[in-house]
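Model: You mentioned two targets. I'll fold them one after the other.
Researcher: Yes, keep them separate.
Model: Target one:
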Amino acid sequence: MTKWVMIFNLMAVLFLLIYFYKPIRIYTLRAYRYYVDSQIKTKFQKSDFPKGFKVHGIDVSHYQTRLQWDNLKSISDDGDTIQFRFVFIKATEGTWLEDELYDVHWQNAKKYQLVRGAYHYFHPNKDVLQQAKNYFESVKLEAGDLPPVIDIEDAKGMKKKEIVASLKAFIKLLEQRYKVKPIIYSYRNFIEDYLSDDFDGYTFWVAHYRQSNLDFDEVKWQFWQHTDKASLLMSGMRVDANVFNGSYKDLKSMTLGEIVPSFEQAKPRVSPTKSSEKQ
């Protein structure tokens, strides 16, 4: 009898671990990162910012554990104070993952009145519908937020034609729900190799480091991630820094109005493609 009780208890523990895997993972990793981050003493340094841009922003994920949201500033090499006014926040990845600090970052961005955008790290070799569902269930965009953002930077062994088909299927779902074209993020080389020929009319957020300007005419870009080593004023924490190619008024004009409330309203209106069925 004792043997069966022990087996039952082990099975119950296993079931609970599987059922609560996601919150256990989130809070365990969060606690670990808070501990590691608290042990690191980072010295503030002036950062290199491209000239001629007035609107600056950052992008964050679970790696940024202790942001001082009330003082998101940096100093350029020439001594100018850089005030960050928008933020891209990692929300989801693939078919099931939600970033551990997404909710915290998302609420803080609103509290401190930053223009915010939520991005999904897209896997072109994974099910498109499930990736869209992951994003829709995790992210609650509001009026005043930027359009949904797709981060695609890994071919996952797929050919260009397959990547394009998969991304277009994912974009179709986003457009059906939000009634707006999403923003596409990637590195310059990836855009040139896979995306520039097939996504005319879409707004791009381009990652291209250690350059004084972004001379890139292959796509329409509005955001430029120009460094991954910007230093925040008080803490010295390193973050990715971005510029917006326009005025603050232009940035606000890109934000959303009324939001479609339900994932189910988008789901029946698209059929899976061969590329989206790949696992």
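Model: Target two:
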Amino acid sequence: RIMKAKYLVIIGLLAATFAACSRDEESLFDKPAAIRAQEAIENAFDVLTSQEAGWEMAYFPNLENTAKGYNMVVKFKKDGSVSVTAKNSTTTMNKIVTDSASTWQVKSDYGPILTFDTYNKVLHAWANPGTDGSGLLGDYEFLILKATPELVLLKGKKHSAYSVLRPVKNPDVAAYFAASEKMQKMLFGNNNIVTLTQGNEKMYLYNGASGQFMSAPYGSALDEAAATLHPVCSTEDGIVVSTGFGEDVHDHVFIYDSIKGELRSELSGAVMNAGNLNVLFGAYFTDNALGWSINTAAIDSVASFLEQVNTLVKDTKNNANVKLLGYGYNQSLNMYEGSHFILLQFGYKNGGKGKEQVIKLTWKCDITVDDNNVTIANVEPNDNTTNTWLTNLPIIQSIIDSVVGTFTATPSETNLFNAATGMNLEGEKILPITGVNNVKI
């Protein structure tokens, strides 16, 4: 009897436990799956049709190595019709093209799915098979991962790239595309490097002008072979990236702050900006053979140099006109690989007419960079031509001396974000950098 009583107590406890679990499950899943699915569909439909001016769609066709982002403006109507507008060099020949004659719907397939279920020439251009059977590998059906009035996050059903919908701020589509193009040029017009600060992590992001960020560890050389790729799309107020920059944080939207000169994620607070410009100077300009040019107006002796050269050429070249073509540092890409050079380049036309004659004078130098300073030292003429010009026009030495010394790299006021376009070297004088120098020594 005692044993029987024990069993009855145990059975009673188990029953009470199962009853408690059942009540927990009821509170957790208080609605049948079919009802929850229907509510998710209705919510997505209501959100998508809530923006009369339409949605900015940062569209990413796929995750291939060549993938990048494209702008569209999409307007969802409650009657099931949809209007899609795009302007890009891939599918619309840089013309604004709109198709308002197709339909859309939200349906259920293990979660809400946005589908453009009849042909839209703007959107389906990405999914057409093309002559090779693959085409541009784009999607026209998307899993709806998030749907709020501020943001809709989509994932391509077939190719798995993330795309983002945000309310359009300017209902004029021409003005929208113009603003997005302006943002692209301002942020990436000189193909600059960006420092991403995300929590305790830092990394370099570069090559944004191509539509794909490449990444590198902070302070390291930029090795494209080792880089990870992050497709990027410029918008009217910042950028959208398809993939996140870490395992734990997956920010997609970065808004541009023109006062601070940075892109910031409202989700996590991650920031993209020029970062430490001295480290950037080393990683971008001296380790990767890209070079830079100095605005010669900042060097006092240049005007006198040009005047003397002009007098010399007038005496020897039939009244030729002389102008300065470029002046700056250029790391050799060929025969002087691994070294650094200062390049002074100027040109003239005989009698002010005909083909311009170009003179290139070069000096070997050392460039060292730390977190606080950029030092240019050990400058020596590189060839006989340079020595000859130095002998005949000693003022050249004062031009070279002006870039020898220790400098601090600082952003200019014109573009705090794109340091490759607007960086200054501040030493005894401020030397403005005008951009990447493509001249090869």
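Researcher: Noted. Anything on target two?
Model: The chain is about 25% helix and 35% strand.
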